[in-house]
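Key idea: predict the complex, not the pieces.
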Amino acid sequence: MATTSVLKPDYDVKGDSFIFTDEHEQLRESIRSFVEKELAPHAEEWEETTFPDSVIHRMGELGFLGLDKPEEYGGQGGDYYTSIVLAEEMARAGSGGLAMGVAVHTDMAMPPILAFGTDEQKQDWLVPAIKGEKILCLGITEPDAGSDVSGIKTRAVYDEATDEYVINGSKTYITNGHRADVIVLVTKTDAEAGYDGFSLFLVPMDAPGVIREKKLEKLGMHASDTALLAFQDVRVPASALLGEKGKGFYHIMWELQGERLIGAAGCVAGAQQAFDKTLEYAKEREAFGRPIGNFQAIRHKFAQMATKIEAARQLVYMTAWRFNNGEYPVREISMAKLYSAQVACEVTDECLQIHGGAGYMKEYGIERSWRDMRLNRIGAGTDEVMLDVIGRSYGL
Ligand SMILES: Cc1cc2nc3c(=O)[nH]c(=O)nc-3n(C[C@H](O)[C@H](O)[C@H](O)COP(=O)(O)OP(=O)(O)OC[C@H]3O[C@@H](n4cnc5c(N)ncnc54)[C@H](O)[C@@H]3O)c2cc1C
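Result:
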């Protein structure tokens, strides 16, 4: 029996989430050790070169690419939270571009193949992708259509004589587009059928007519490659159709939900990473005879950031819990995506400010986080699109 009636605040309490078990924490430890030993030391170098394909191969060997995928396809058979653990730990590499390249492979291109693919498609693409032997990318965005997915122009026309589809069009901002072996491609198969006129295809990137036009230069996420792609009379067999013909729009809207939630988890982890690094800095860096963290103005910045990060984290975890239980919480996923991305941008901006001139210098890694995080308010659905989804969900 306790002899004191005075309760002390538990500031260092562990297990700040109800969704993770001991097994998740063990998985976290092993991913963390891999990330810290084999990825983080290269963060700066890969800004110049983009990360090598060998990262995907190595992660496949270690079993990290199919954590929540069924064992029959070489996955680990874990729950959705294992993907959240991966997204969180990848943030420790300090390279947003690397985390994004891996997430496009595991949580953007893979889920539609698993959900809608035939057994043959799964054997051809999912199994080697989980092993890290084949790399995936996802093509939705086009030069003339991003937020408005229904405005895409890439066409797939059925050729009865050969039982093939002929694809023409172009895609832009495609992550992994230069390294990928296959693209999950969103096309229109019936221009007159509205939302029922879209179809997905699995198109090998070495098929004649697939042109990797340009490596695009960008503000951040330098460790990832971003492609402008053209498809000129690309012929694929009818068996390359992924999912139901005409249902591609709904398939890709479903895919975007998982992508957004994983992105949100990555944002929270990225914000936490910057926060931790900056906290250490603020305790050491002195000005006017004291550590800068002891100025009330700076202390309050940390308090504000910590509160926002925690709120975003709980929103992500609660939504992940619903998603893992088989619900389709589109409103909450949109909220989690919107809020986490905004928090990540606000936090990295404050962290840069607290670092002063050092924040602007490359060697501290904060400027990279600041640049990398900015994408999250645009990619996978902009802030404005998320607000629209949330607003419309109330019947407006
Ligand atoms: C580095 C990077 C990597 C990417 N990776 C991929 C990838 O792998 N695969 C892929 O398919 N795509 C990818 N994208 C594309 C990304 O998803 C799109 O950029 C994003 O969806 C926005 O589309 P857009 O750029 O065409 O902007 P637009 O749709 O042209 O939007 C421009 C502005 O208008 C606003 N706007 C648009 N519609 C509305 C509306 N209804 N109400 C209010 N405001 C609106 C937007 O919010 C935005 O501020 C990537 C983008 C980047 C930058």
